[in-house]
Amino acid sequence: KRDPDEEIAVLPPRMGVATVRQVAANAVMAGCLPEHVPVVIAAVEALADPAFNLQAVETDVNPVAPLTIVNGPVRKAIGMNWGRNALGEGNRANASIGRAVRLALLNTGGAKPGLADMAILGQPGKYVFCLAEDEDGNPWEPLHVERGLRPEDSAVTVVAATGTVNVLTGTMYNVRDMMALVANAMSYMGSNNVILGEGEPMAVLTRGHASMLRREGLTKADVKRLLYEKSGFPSANLPPIMRRERVAAVEKDGWIRPARRPEDILVLVAGGSEPNHAMVIPTYGDTRAVTRPVRLP
Fold first, then answer.
1. Which of 71, 289, 70 has its CA nearest to residue 200?
2. How does strand 266-269 pair with strand 202-205?
C-alpha cells in the first residue's frame, strides 16, 4: 500500500535512488514473495544510513558484504530460518531476502564487480548473507531490543561483515573456556577490527552456548566483557609494517584487542541447539551496524 515512487534511499556509489518499485523489482528477481518485500525495504533503508558507510563498503578492495539480520515477529510470519544451517541453504526467505539486498546494491547502487566493487577476492556473502535471530532460544534481550526497539517490533540490522570464522568449541570445556576460544578467533592480527582500530566484531552463539552461559548467571553484557577480556594479543607481536595510528584506539597497556570496548562486540543467538560450534564474524572496521524497524502493511 506504499506509493511505488516513494523514495526509500539513495545508494552509492552511483547514488541511485531506490524507490519502492525498484526494491520490489529486485525482490522479484531474487525470488522473494510479496511478504518478504517490507524486510528488503527496511534493509535498504538501513544500508543507506551514513553510519553504515556504504560508499566504502561497496567500493573497497576488502571482501566486505552486508549481513542482514532479522528480528521480531516477522521472522516467523515469513518462515525464516534461525536454527540449524541458518547461514546455509534450504530456506527461501533467507536466500531471497539476502539476494534481493545484493541486487539492489548492484542494480540501483551500481556496485558492479570490477567497475565500482573492487574487492580483490570477494566472498560468498556477496551473493546471499541473511539470517534471523533465534529469539526463542535466546535467554537475553534480542538484538533489536538491545538496540532500542520493543520486543514486539520487527526489525532488520545490517552489519558490514568481512567473512565467517568457525570456532570448534566442543562440549568438554566450561563456558569460560568456550568463550576464550571465541575471543581468540576474534583476535587475528590481519583483522580490519585490529588494523583500523574500530568496528563491531560479532560472536554468533547457539542456544546451547547461551543457556550454559545463562546458567552461570551471565548477562549478555557479561558475555561481551568476557569476550573482550579474553581477546587480543601483545602489542609487540604485531609486525611493525602493520602498525597504524588507528591501532592505538584498541591498544591498552601493551595489549591489542579487536574492539575499543566490550559494548562494541555484537552477540547473536542462532544455529542448531548444540554448543559444539560457534561463529565469529569480523567486520569492516570503518562502519557501524544499523537497525531499522520493518514497516508491515
1. 289
2. parallel
- Rounded CA-CA distance 195/258 in Å is 9
Q: CB count, 10 Å around CB of 192?
A: 22
Residue 262, Cβ neighbours under 10 Å: how many?
A: 17
The predicted-structure confidence for 51-109, as pLDDT tens digits, reads as follows: 999 999 999 999 999 999 999 999 999 999 999 999 999 999 999 999 999 999 999 99
DSSP structural state of residue 90: S
Q: What is the average pLDDT score of the chain?
A: 96
State yes or no: pLDDT of 172 exceeds 80. Answer: no
pLDDT tens digits for 92-104? 999 999 999 999 9
Residue 37 grid coordinates: 518485500
Sorted by sequence, the CB contacts under 8 Å of residue 227 that are 6+ apart come out as: 179, 182, 183, 186, 203, 262, 265, 267
Strands (E), the chain: 7-11, 16-19, 65-71, 130-132, 155-161, 165-168, 202-205, 233-234, 251-252, 255-256, 266-269, 277-281, 290-293
Amino acid 173: pLDDT = 76
d(CA 72, CA 155): 6
Beta strands in 105-263 (DSSP E): 130-132, 155-161, 165-168, 202-205, 233-234, 251-252, 255-256
Over its C-alpha atoms, the chain yields an Rg (Å, rounded) of 19
* pLDDT of amino acid 289: 98
Task: List, in order, residues 6 or more apart from 176 with CB less than 8 Å away.
Answer: 216, 226
63 CB-near residues (< 8 Å, 6+ apart): 119, 120, 121, 122, 123, 125, 126, 162, 163
pLDDT of residue 243: 83
Q: Is residue 14 within 8 Å of 110, Cβ to Cβ?
A: yes
Backbone angles phi, psi at 256, to 5 degrees: -110, 130
For residue 161, the cross-strand partners are: 65, 283
Over range 23-41, report the average pLDDT: 98
